[in-house]
Amino acid sequence: MKIKVKLTGLDCPNCARNLQNEINKLEGVKNAQIDFVKSSLIFEADDGDLALQKIKNLTHELEPQAVITESETHKPNKRFVLDLVLLVVGISIGVFIFFCPLNVYVYWSLYVLACLLLGYKTYIKAVRLLFKGVINENLLITISVVGASIISEHMEGLMVIALYSIGKLFENLAVSKSRKSIEKLARMQPEYANLLVRGKEHRVSPEQVKVGSKIVVHAGEKVPIDGVIVSGSSMLDNQSLTGESVPVSKRVGDEILSGGIVLDGTLEIKTTSEYKDSAISKIMDLVENASENKSKTETIISKITRWYTLGVVLLAVAVWAIVWAVTANLQTAFYRGLIFLVVSCPCAFAISVPLSYFSGLGNASKNGVLIKGSNYLDACAGLKLVAFDKTGTLTTGEFEVKSVKAEKGFKKAEILYYAALGEQNSLHPLAKAIVRANKKKLVAVKNVREIAGKGVEYSLNSSKYFVGRQTSDLKATMVQVFKDNTLIGTIELADTIKPTAATACTELKNLGVDVALLSGDNADIVKSVASEVGIANIHSNLLPDDKYNYLTASKNAKTRVGYVGDGINDAPSLAVADVGFSMGINGAPASIEASDVVIVDDNPQKIASAVKISRYTRKIVWQNIILSAAIKITFLTLGAFGVTGMLAAVFADMGVTLLAVLNSLRALHYNPNKKKK
After folding, report:
1. What is the rounded CA–CA span in Å between residue 271 and residue 268?
2. What is the C-alpha separation between 61 and 452, in angstroms, rounded?
3. What pLDDT does 75 receive?
């Protein structure tokens, strides 16, 4: 079985990676994954309790400050405060011993105490992991501090561990800031539902509410399950759900999604799904699993850092040997070898790359775009073509009356009325649109008879009426109305185009992404929609296989393709596309499952937002990689030739790490909707 727990207290990504490797060596534990940024551990085990106990024991041995819990009860604030206090005391002692004349024994006692206060956790980790055959940055720093002490560079030894510890504190603060974006999403999860039974409210778990039940949501409460409002009206705050800051008005008959907050009034809702199938549950599941799908860049960096530290140690030895051979000075050679160790710490790469992707994913979630992993975030950045299905993506899937033609002697309102009389009990989308458009009060009619494939006939005031199509040469969205076999009017309907559809296509084209429309509808309808939203590349009368083949051919032409769909028949196309986008509200479960990106509020403009966020995130990732590599190579070279000392090396290491971390957080605050001046 698969088990997920909280793992807090780890203060570096390499520590998390080393612990993960050791956990996977435990008997009875499989596929253990530690998400450093999200503070979680997922593993598989036949005996979950026994495996968890083994993991806890190992974690306590290797990372004593780490805590494994099955809930959110552990708060790391106290540990942060303790680390800060020890840091301040350690630095204060260091300043005191360097500026006050002291007895040699007192000096050494205080010096050792300062070193321990500043880095005792680092030294303990280094030794424990070394006994398990693991070499990481903790060992590099430990060797540097001990080495500096041996060659009497006491000030530099203390500065190494002090600046390293300060950098770690700032790293943790930066990561905590990024974590809050996901914790904010977690708080969207409703804790209870007010189930209405025989007129009385009962507070129950959302999982207990069945489809068709009635629930009550009061002002200030979260909507726990998707449904339709049967009583009441309210303004609804959907910001956490869709990223839209403006509250929306909801009243009787409106669909309502779980996760929104009722701002005023009381709503009575008839549920249309179980909690596990509701919008908020889908979002939470996608957010929880997003980090499991890593980008190629992130995976490569992760693999490199596993062997990076060992390579650094070997290179440091080589630098020491070369400098000794050239200068014949053992202390100088040793000192330059230590500089090499300090500069080469992999922290900047190890944390900034995953943090950049995590920040990008968090930003996308905040904007109502759920991307299932950093690999799909990367893929969005490289899209060259986005192909849209028509119904439910560029259009709402709900029809409206476009025009009414009345024959001589009749009025348009009469035609709508006679058509609505015949369609009032039908569930067909065209029938519903006609009934909505009619403004007159409907009455019961007699002798209602449905004629398969044609329409419906009925009797009213000794006359016989027919609503439908008598001939096959009409458009699929044309409805005729006959009275006593005489045509009295024609109604034309059209699928409603989403208000943001044209903007979505324009923004994608401005980003250099080609747009295509793939639809199963006839050519006239497809051309009409395409002209309104601004798409020139159109394909009509397509079967699901035809869409699949079109996308496959585009991919074979080395074009990175995205596909946007919402129906069950779109699942194959969503799966074959480099990036599949599905609709979160009206999308079929199969399409959401097959897709890589879910648009929470069905707004096609969010596809352009996804591309913008992904490109911005990828730019930051490469900025961090290039910046870190350039600075490290520069200071490694300068240190090897004796131009810079150990203090400069520490600033180069922790300084570039902090810069990279702060740069990563820009991906979290980037606004894809901000217009360029």
Report:
1. 10
2. 74
3. 47
Instruction: Please state whether 198 falls in left (phi above 0), alpha (psi between -120 and 50) or beta.
Output: left
Do residues 137 and 121 make contact, with C-beta atoms less than 8 angstroms apart? no
- CA-CA distance, 262 to 285, in Å (whole number)? 23
Q: Which of 601, 613, 598 is nearest to 672 (CA)?
A: 613
Q: Which residues contact 427 (CB under 8 A, 6 or more apart)?
A: none
Reduced to 3 states (helix: H, G, I; strand: E, B; else coil), residue 486 is strand
Alpha-carbon distance 349 to 657, whole Å? Answer: 8
Q: How far apart are CA 417 and CA 490, in angstroms?
A: 12
Q: Is 546 noted as a catalytic residue in this protein?
A: no
Claim: this prediction has a pTM higher than 0.70: no
CATH 2.70.150.10 in the chain is located at: 193-285
Q: Which fold has domain 193-285?
A: 2.70.150
Amino acid 373 reads G
Tokens of 640: 């090897």
For the stretch 343-373, pLDDT in tens is: 776 666 766 777 788 888 888 888 888 888 7
Helix segments in 328-406, DSSP class H? 330-343, 347-366, 374-381
Domain with CATH 3.40.1110.10 in the chain: 396-497
Catalytic member of 83, 237, 389, 602:
389
Q: What is the CATH number of domain 2-75?
A: 3.30.70.100
CATH number of 396-497: 3.40.1110.10
CB–CB of 309/139 below 8 Å? yes
Phi, psi for 418 (deg, rounded to 5): -65, -35
Alpha carbons 592 and 543: distance in angstroms, whole number: 20
What SS3 state is found at 386?
Answer: strand
Compute the distance between CA of residue 274 and CA of residue 526 in angstroms, rounded to an integer. 35
DSSP state, residue 206: G
Q: pLDDT tens for residues 78-125? A: 667 888 888 899 999 989 998 888 888 999 999 999 999 998 888 888
